[in-house]
């Protein structure tokens, strides 16, 4: 079985591991990109996987180019698998697989179509999300649903943990979908476009702390960007990132930060939050006690505006 995998980040790596054990793989990914503090150029996770596991791969920032389409066609694909790729596939390329072009999408479609479904689900206070295996169509995330699996979201669910859970669940569900399609033992559910919502791309404003809201909303914001990139705020002319926090009963005015008995707290419109992990600009993540050993935080310091 020949499978072409399209991906640009680590979300699809569990799927790649599963696919590599059952098929002949061709990986399509994008060119190396800058990352980290120094903005050095690094290969993307699918390319790293390909090099480590001796899997054929192509790099392109336009998968719809004639040369790429020709190489994919010559591969004689049985399936496409798309996982967090960031490029739209045109109809001419979607028609190439023998069976179906499939997409692993980390939401319960038709909710949260688009670029940032995991973070948006946490930010919006959803109590569940999930994985959808869908048939790829030209319209973004709108194809027929082949399989879905629900995953719970709690008050302490953070982005990096949910990302990992969904990526593993997506790999498991993908194989079930592939085998059911080969056996012609599946039903495709058409999405109801009237129920569709869109998970907009993340901007800096999304991970800039807004502590003028109730504690639940603030914690959801922190959780949606934990443990990366963190929720940033400004204090004493310096930027910091909150990495982990929990609910607290300590009383503190909204939009302030304070230290009480070696514990660090953030005031919101309702209850406060205890900050467990924090990252000063240009430094490593540290727990609040280590932070307070190096930074003097008086009670009820008002956060500065950007």
UniProtKB/TrEMBL annotation:
What residues does (6S)-5,6,7,8-tetrahydrofolate bind to?
107-110
Reaction(s) catalysed (UniProt annotation): L-methionyl-tRNA(fMet) + (6R)-10-formyltetrahydrofolate = N-formyl-L-methionyl-tRNA(fMet) + (6S)-5,6,7,8-tetrahydrofolate + H(+)
Annotated Formyl transferase C-terminal domain residues: 201-296
Organism domain of life? Bacteria
Checking InterPro entries in the record gives: Fmt, Formyl_trans_C, Formyl_transf_N, Formyl_transf_N_sf, Formyl_transferase-like_C_sf, GART_AS, Met-tRNA-FMT_C, Met-tRNA-FMT_N
Q: Where is the signal peptide?
A: none
| HAMAP family reported for this sequence | Formyl_trans
PANTHER family registered for this protein in UniProt: METHIONYL-TRNA FORMYLTRANSFERASE (PTHR11138), METHIONYL-TRNA FORMYLTRANSFERASE, MITOCHONDRIAL (PTHR11138:SF5)
The role this protein plays is: Attaches a formyl group to the free amino group of methionyl-tRNA(fMet). The formyl group appears to play a dual role in the initiator identity of N-formylmethionyl-tRNA by promoting its recognition by IF2 and preventing the misappropriation of this tRNA by the elongation apparatus.
| Family named by the database record | Belongs to the Fmt family.
Descriptive protein name: Methionyl-tRNA formyltransferase
Q: What species is this protein from?
A: candidate division TA06 bacterium
């Amino acid at each position: 079985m020949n499978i072409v995998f399209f991906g640009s980040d680590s979300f699809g790596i569990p799927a790649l591991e599963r696919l590599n054990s059952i098929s002949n793989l061709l990986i399509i990914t994008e060119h190396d990109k800058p990352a980290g503090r120094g903005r050095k150029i690094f290969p993307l996770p699918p390319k790293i996987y390909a090099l480590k596991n001796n899997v054929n791969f192509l790099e392109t920032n336009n998968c719809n180019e004639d040369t790429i389409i020709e190489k994919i066609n010559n591969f004689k694909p049985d399936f496409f698998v798309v996982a967090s790729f960031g490029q739209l596939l045109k109809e001419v390329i979607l028609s190439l697989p023998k069976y179906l072009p499939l997409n692993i999408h980390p939401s319960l479609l038709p909710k949260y179509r688009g670029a940032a479904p995991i973070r948006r689900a946490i930010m919006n206070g959803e109590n569940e999300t999930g994985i959808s295996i869908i048939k790829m169509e030209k319209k973004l995330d709108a194809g027929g649903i082949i399989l879905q699996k629900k995953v719970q979201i709690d008050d302490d669910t953070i982005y990096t943990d949910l990302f990992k859970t969904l990526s593993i669940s997506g790999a498991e569900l993908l194989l079930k979908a592939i085998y059911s399609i080969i056996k012609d033992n599946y039903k495709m559910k058409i999405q109801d476009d009237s129920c569709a919502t869109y998970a907009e791309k993340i901007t800096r404003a999304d991970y800039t702390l807004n502590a003028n809201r109730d504690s639940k909303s603030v914690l959801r914001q922190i959780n949606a960007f934990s443990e990366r990139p963190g929720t940033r705020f400004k204090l004493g002319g310096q930027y910091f990132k909150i990495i982990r926090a929990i609910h607290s009963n300590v009383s503190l005015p909204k939009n302030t930060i304070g230290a009480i008995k070696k514990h660090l707290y953030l005031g919101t419109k309702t209850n406060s939050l205890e900050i467990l992990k924090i990252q000063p600009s240009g430094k490593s993540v540290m727990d609040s006690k280590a932070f307070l050993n190096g930074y003097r935080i008086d009670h009820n310091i008002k956060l500065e505006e950007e």
